């Protein structure tokens, strides 16, 4: 299968062969980017207010789509109910408007799309592609080693080796369990990323059998985002490089569930860290946009600082997103793929 120089993630013949073993057609996996409209997405999780790292990634996603005349949809990824902060979705949308990042159409909430995820799970179950996992968190910590680059835990397949009889018996007696995707053995996916280049993943070795439904009944990120991106026709996925490995999982799952859907184009950008090299995160109380706004920081300062961190400007200066549309180029981001250290004091000096 030919690969376009600016093409989307692609699956190689090993994956095509594995897909055919599941009875899924593989003939229309890719469309030329020029033959389809560009649809990007803003996909925040309402677990708190946006911080500078979220604004940086959102600006990259927005510019990537708008610079090619594309649409941008807004999807609120509130699938993790226990971590969702009431009212955070409204604050996030207000922050996007404050920054000048608009979107097309009405927002979509994942919590209102549960039947879609249920149908996807039923489809996978009917083909024997998922299995129950009875491992506790302690079991997983003891048996799985995090990958050095992104902290990704590779499940060792403990419960995959259980017999059908034992699985039925444990489910019948009420043992708590999640549901995992059974990755094919000796199948590889290549992700052609516009920033980080070509990355190959052996699905079983490098990704493992990921959870699609948690033991508390909630659908997992990998399932929900794959279903939604395909259902919403997303063609342009731009996000932090810590999710590069997840792209391989989503490429595989997308083609299992939606074999006729064209592959999206991926661009993973360097992430923002604090001075210690730790990725900025809401759970670590990273300074959010609400605090910056209260401190008198202008939206143009935030946008210009983020554009500089992306490599679009030669220095931080006030900018509006609309003024950056004609300047955006993946090649500028590619010039330096190292993570960036965020210095909030710059925003007050611009």
Structure description:
With 350 residues, this protein is of the alpha/beta class. The protein has two domains: 10-113 and 233-349, HUPs (Rossmann fold), CATH 3.40.50; 115-213, Glutamyl-tRNA Synthetase, domain 3, CATH 3.90.800.10. The chain contains 14 helices and 13 strands. A three-stranded antiparallel beta sheet has the order 1-7-8. Helix 2 crosses helix 11 (299-310) and helix 8 packs across helix 9 (244-257). It starts with 9 loop residues before the first strand and ends with a helix. The relative contact order is 0.18.
Beta content comes to: 5-15%
Note the total helix count: 14
**Spans where pLDDT lies below 50 across 5 or more residues:** 1-33
Overall SS class: alpha/beta
**Named CATH topology of the largest domain:** Rossmann fold
For the largest beta-sheet, the strand count, sense and barrel status come to: 3 strands, antiparallel
CATH level-four homologous superfamily name of the largest domain: HUPs
Helix content: 25-40%
Q: Judging from the principal axes of the Cα atoms, what is the shape? A: globular
Distance between the termini: 49 Å
Query: pLDDT average, as an integer?
Result: 88
How many beta-strand runs?
A: 13
The quaternary structure here is: single chain
Question: How large is the radius of gyration?
Answer: 21 Å
Largest sheet, spatial ordering of strands: 1-7-8
CATH class type of the largest domain: Alpha Beta
């Amino acid at each position: 299968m030919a690969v376009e120089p600016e093409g989307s993630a692609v699956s190689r013949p090993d994956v095509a062969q594995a897909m055919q073993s599941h009875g899924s057609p593989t003939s229309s996996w890719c469309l030329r980017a020029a033959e389809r409209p560009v649809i990007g997405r803003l996909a925040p999780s309402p677990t708190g207010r946006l911080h500078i790292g979220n604004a940086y990634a959102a600006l990259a996603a927005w510019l990537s789509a708008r610079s090619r005349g594309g649409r941008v949809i807004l999807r609120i990824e509130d699938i993790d109910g226990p971590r969702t902060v009431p009212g955070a979705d409204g604050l996030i949308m207000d922050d996007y408007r404050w920054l000048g990042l608009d979107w097309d159409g009405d927002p979509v909430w994942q919590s209102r799309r549960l039947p879609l995820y249920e149908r996807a799970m039923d489809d996978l179950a009917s083909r024997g592609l998922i299995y129950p996992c009875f491992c506790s968190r302690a079991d997983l910590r003891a048996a799985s080693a995090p990958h050095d680059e992104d902290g990704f835990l590779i499940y060792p397949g403990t419960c995959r080796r259980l017999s059908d009889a034992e699985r039925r018996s444990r489910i019948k007696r009420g043992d708590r369990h999640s549901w995992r995707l059974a990755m094919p053995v000796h199948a590889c996916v290549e992700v052609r990323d516009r920033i980080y280049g070509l990355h190959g993943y052996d699905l079983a070795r490098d990704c493992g059998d990921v959870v699609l439904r948690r033991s508390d009944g909630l659908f997992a990120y990998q399932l929900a985002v794959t279903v939604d991106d395909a259902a919403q026709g997303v063609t342009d996925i731009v996000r932090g490089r810590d999710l590069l490995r997840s792209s391989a999982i989503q490429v595989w799952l997308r083609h299992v569930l939606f074999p006729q859907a064209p592959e999206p184009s991926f661009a993973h950008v360097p992430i923002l860290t604090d001075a210690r090299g730790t990725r900025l995160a809401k759970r670590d109380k990273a300074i959010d946009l609400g605090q910056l706004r209260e401190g008198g920081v202008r939206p143009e300062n935030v946008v210009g600082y983020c554009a500089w961190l992306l490599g679009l400007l030669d220095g931080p200066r006030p900018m509006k997103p609309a003024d950056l549309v004609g300047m955006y180029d993946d090649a500028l981001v590619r010039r330096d793929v190292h993570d960036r250290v965020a210095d909030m004091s710059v925003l007050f000096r611009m």
